[in-house]
Amino acid sequence: MEELAVQTYRVTRADLVRYAGASGDFNVIHWSDRLAAKVGLPGVIAHGMFTMALAGRAVAAWAGAADAVVDFNVRFSRPVPVPDDDEGTEVEFRGVIKGVTEDGLTQIDITATCHGEKVLSQARAIVRRQHA
Amino acid sequence: MPLDPSFVGRTYPPTAPYQVGREKIREFAKAIGAADPLHHDPEVAQAAGYADVVAPPTFPVVLTMAASRQIVDDPELGVDYSRVVHGDQRFAYQRPVVAGDELVCVNTVEDIMSRGGHGFMTTRTDVSTSAGEPVVSVWSKLVVRGEG
User: Fold this and answer.
1) CATH second-level architecture of A2-127?
2) Which tens digit of pLDDT belongs to each residue from B12-27?
3) Which of A40, A51, B55, B145 is most exposed, with minimal Cβ within 10 Å?
4) Strands B84-93 vs A106-114: parallel, antiparallel or unpaired
């Protein structure tokens, strides 16, 4: 098993606003503390699909190509709270090469953590790997 | 109200074609911080064998999330969207999405189950070009939280 270089991405409220616009996901829990609290959340949380998109960036970096992903799967195990300040939060992605499929594709298992807690589980990508 | 398991296997009519724009791909890539020129520069994409800029792997959610409202908003199924939490997500690609693609989504309810008072529904959206070329299949598991 080969461990890949850790990828860390900072997430701020501005990023969530930009992602909402780009993706079309305007769910209030991703921009309003008041409305997030109403449904029992501690405050605004990142879009799960934004966290998955960041995982996709990490996979592209590991695979050495932005078009490498053939199959990509995650489970959203815990929300990523994003405070309303300049620092926001950080999500850390670790990847391990699990092996090569019979089609010659590479399986990467992904761990995503925020403040040391797993925010994705069963996260895995199958990629065409360009270079090590 | 529990989700009706008789919906398993139901397939909905194809959605209206979605035209994938170069600027939309750039906007999405920028929003997720994906700076690779393959997402931004048509010349780089063409040198890599694509007709135009290539979308990041999770880009299809732009279409499929809107398309899956066909299921979530189906009054017969009766999902309370305010109780929906995103559980799992998977993309299986035939090829990447490229600017200029005209894409159609076909939604299918793949699985419905109840556990611990919560409802779980897996939907599959098959995304193909309007000419019928399969591009990507997208699975979402939605959790409908039980009351109380």
Assistant:
1) Roll (3.10)
2) 999 999 999 999 999 9
3) A40
4) unpaired
Q: Which residues on chain A are in Cβ contact (under 8 Å) with B33?
A: 9, 15, 54, 57
Predicted TM-score (pTM) of this structure: 0.95
Residue type, position B123, single letter: T
CA separation for the pair B44, B38 (Å, rounded): 6
> ipTM higher than 0.90?
yes
Bridge partner residues of A109 (DSSP): A96, A124
Is B66 within 8 Å of A66 when comparing Cβ atoms? no
Give tens-digit pLDDT for B67-114.
988 998 999 998 887 788 889 999 999 999 999 999 999 999 999 999
